[in-house]
Amino acid sequence: MVEKNVILDEAAIRRALTRIAHEIIEKNKGVENCVLVGIKTRGVYLAERLAQRIEQIENVKLPTGHLDITLYRDDLTHKAEDAVLKGAQLPNDITGKTVILIDDVLFTGRTVRAALDALVDQGRPTMIQLAVLVDRGHRELPIRPDYVGKNVPTSRSEIVAVELTEVDELDQVTIRQM
Predict the structure, then answer these.
(1) Where are the alpha helices (DSSP H) in 65-153?
(2) Which of 24, 53, 72, 120 has the fewest CB atoms lying closer than 10 Å?
């Protein structure tokens, strides 16, 4: 795999998350009934960063949680030997809450579909919204994000790689050729 180019550096990721935080506050008329839930792995760290930004803006600490969607994937038969449920860690009960699901890259929509199934197994939120750092297109399911850090048209032969300090020791998003 050859790195093609950096589409978001550390500063651009920070700005995108700050913008998304403001959009979440505006769309929900505050954050009183909201919960942030990150999809493992990088969505968890993005959720934590968004919670920090929202706390700085609104002076309200939002509850955050995470989902492991491994056993909800529709390609599980291909991964059965590797499938390990790492669980869901959600703050309290999500029933009646606005859950903002957070992921790093939105591609076909299948990961989000699996996350929706996992969420509904945990409770019945009033509303589920979707925030992604990068929307690269190529949807196979009718799923659209409510909040997007950056829209990046890609070809199917490209890979959008999100690297975050918490996992990868640097913050950047690159497009790589397969």
Answers:
(1) 76-79, 110-122
(2) 120
CA–CA separation, 56 and 41 (whole Å): 24
pTM summary value? 0.91
Instruction: Give me the domain span that covers residue 129.
Output: 2-177
Q: In 3D, which of 91, 95, 100 has the Cα closest to residue 23?
A: 100
pLDDT digits (tens, 9 = 90+) for 62-96: 999 999 998 887 776 554 444 444 567 887 789 99
Report the distance separating Cα 100 and Cα 142, nearest Å. Answer: 18
Q: Beta-carbon neighbour count of residue 164 at 10 Å?
A: 22
User: What tokens appear for 51 in the block?
Assistant: 């919670």
Report residues of the chain scoring pLDDT below 50.
79-85
| C-alpha–C-alpha distance, residues 152 and 169, integer Å | 23
Q: What is the count of structural domains for the chain?
A: 1
